[in-house]
Amino acid sequence: MRFTTLHKGLALSIFGLGTLAAPAFADDAAPAAPNKASAATSKHIKSERKKEHRAFHHLSEHGQQAMTSILQAQQILAAGQSEQALPALNAALAHLQAASKAREQFTAAEADLHPAPQHPVSSAHTPQSGPTDWIPVGGEVIATDTLEPSKKSAVATANAQLKAGQTQQAAQTLQVVGQDIDFIVALAPLAQLQGFVNRALIFAEGHHPDAATVALNDALNTLVFVSENVVTEATAAAQQQK
């Protein structure tokens, strides 16, 4: 399983960033029609930027922080240090509890989520049955193969910013890409993730780092990677049912 940007705060979402490039300045002697077109382009640019920021706003701050703590604990446990992993495990549980009360949490059946082709679920993944509470715990921007190296570098920078939880900065960085990209959101089933992290905590307290590591691996295997559009639709549907 690949975690390019899931260390702190994933089907296909097109931002349409090709329209974010600055429009050419109209010639002073140009007729009124091109100026109107330029104004329309400017309006569309602002619209696309709103979409871009909206996509990042799907991410749960506490969900991202919980994932950070889980991955930190995983690294510590891999070194056989059970007691040292306890603060990270407790922090993960605290953040998951906070995430359960945040606006980003929503309820949906996993069968309705449609995983992204770029990010299939783990081979060890067991699908959730029935309505499930989900929290967005990470995001990843994926560059198309046709992007030039400098723009792929900008995408890499944006992913690093997402990794650090800097969603606003990541959105600004992507404005220079000037071409369509994909945004994938990682969703975690809240109760199942809490259960596995709590199991890891119990094993760590009992000085069983290997068993605790297995529990955290099971936790990560619950993740489902979907389109930003899927999250938008699922969140809207959940709000209508309230």
Notes on the structure:
The protein has helices at 32-57, 61-78, 82-99, 149-163, 167-174, 190-205, 209-220, 228-241; strands spanning 106-109, 131-142, 182-189, 224-227. Helix content is 52%, strand content 12%. Helix 2 (61-78) packs antiparallel against helix 7, helix 3 packs antiparallel against helix 6 (190-205) and helix 6 packs antiparallel against helix 7 (209-220). Mean pLDDT is 75; it is low at 1-34 and 36-53. The chain has a 4-stranded antiparallel β-sheet with strand order 1-2-3-4, sandwiched between helices. The chain has 8 helices and 4 strands. The protein is an alpha+beta fold and 242 residues long. The two termini are 35 Å apart.
Main attributes?
single chain, 242 residues, alpha+beta, four-stranded antiparallel β-sheet, 8 helices, 4 strands, 12% strand, globular, disordered N terminus
SSE topology sketch:
Layout: H1 32-57, H2 61-78, H3 82-99, E1 106-109, E2 131-142, H4 149-163, H5 167-174, E3 182-189, H6 190-205, H7 209-220, E4 224-227, H8 228-241
Antiparallel strand pairs: 1-2, 2-3, 3-4
Helix pairs in contact: 2-3, 2-7, 3-6, 4-5, 6-7
Point out poorly predicted stretches: 1-34, 36-53
Could you say which structural class the secondary elements and strand pairing correspond to? Answer: alpha+beta
Distance between the termini: 35 Å
Q: Describe the biggest sheet?
A: 4 strands, antiparallel
- Rg estimate, integer Å: 20 Å
Beta percentage is: 5-15%
The number of helices is: 8
Total beta-strand segments? 4
Encode the helix/strand succession as letters.
HHHEEHHEHHEH
In spatial order, strands of the major sheet run: 1-2-3-4
Average pLDDT for all residues: 75
Helix content: 40-55%
Shape descriptor: globular
